[in-house]
């Protein structure tokens, strides 16, 4: 009766070590799984919170034709030259469409003055036409701003016909 545990078979030291190492492996594996899952959750949460929100879909382009086409004459040395340009304004804002139509006379006036002050040799090149197009955009944006509109809502000016004689 010296030992009450004598009735139960005791494990040998080698078996105890083997049992402890199995328990250690199981606990270690669980710890790795928990840490890995926690890290994945944390990184996923962090990436979701820092991701940029999706941009709202852009509204369809709206075009405002400035009819009739512009016809201007300019001096190119000895002979008079003519330029005929058909212009369209592009925006995505329906209110800007109405704004541009309401201010058509002012826009046409400024574009006629701009087109009439061009040099025939410069406007004959692609770069010259692009420079003229950008100048026309800035001119119309100045009008929009002076009349109380948002000039950034006018996105582009396009020449849909460009004839020089």
Structure, explained:
- The N and C termini lie far apart (126 Å).
- The radius of gyration is 39 Å and the shape is rod-shaped.
- Helix content is 52%, strand content 22%.
- The protein has a 3-stranded antiparallel beta sheet with strand order 1-2-3.
- It folds into 2 domains: 39 residues; 103 residues, Tetrahydropterin Synthase, Chain A.
- By secondary structure, the chain is an alpha+beta fold.
Give a topology summary.
Layout lengths: L12 H38 L11 E14 L4 E12 L2 H9 L1 H13 L3 H4 L2 H21 L7 E11 L1
Antiparallel strand pairs: 1-2, 2-3
Tally the structural domains.
2
Strand proportion:
15-25%
In one word, what is the shape?
rod-shaped
Which regions have little confidence, pLDDT < 50, spanning 5+ residues? none
Report the strand count.
3
Major β-sheet, in short? 3 strands, antiparallel
Structural class: alpha+beta
How far from one another are the termini? 126 Å
Overall pLDDT confidence: 83
What fold name goes in the CATH topology slot of the largest domain?
Tetrahydropterin Synthase, Chain A
- Order of strands in the sheet with the most strands? 1-2-3
- CATH hierarchy: architecture of the largest domain: 2-Layer Sandwich
What helical percentage do the residues reach? 40-55%
**Element pattern in H and E:** HEEHHHHE
The level-1 CATH class of the largest domain: Alpha Beta
How many helices? The count is 5
Radius of gyration: 39 Å
């Amino acid at each position: 009766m010296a030992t009450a545990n004598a009735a139960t078979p005791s494990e040998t030291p080698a078996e105890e070590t083997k049992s402890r190492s199995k328990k250690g492996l199981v606990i270690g594996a669980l710890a790795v799984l928990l840490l890995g899952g926690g890290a994945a959750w944390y990184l996923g949460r962090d990436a979701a919170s820092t991701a940029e929100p999706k941009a709202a879909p852009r509204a369809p382009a709206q075009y405002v034709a400035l009819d009739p086409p512009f016809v201007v004459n300019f001096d190119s040395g000895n002979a008079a030259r003519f330029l005929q340009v058909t212009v369209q304004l592009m925006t995505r804002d329906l209110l800007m469409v109405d704004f541009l139509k309401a201010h058509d006379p002012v826009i046409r006036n400024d574009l006629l003055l701009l087109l009439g002050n061009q040099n025939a040799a410069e406007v004959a090149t692609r770069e010259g036409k692009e420079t003229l197009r950008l100048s026309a955009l800035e001119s119309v944006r100045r009008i929009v701003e002076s009349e109380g509109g948002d000039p950034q809502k006018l996105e582009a000016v396009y020449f849909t016909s460009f004839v020089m004689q």
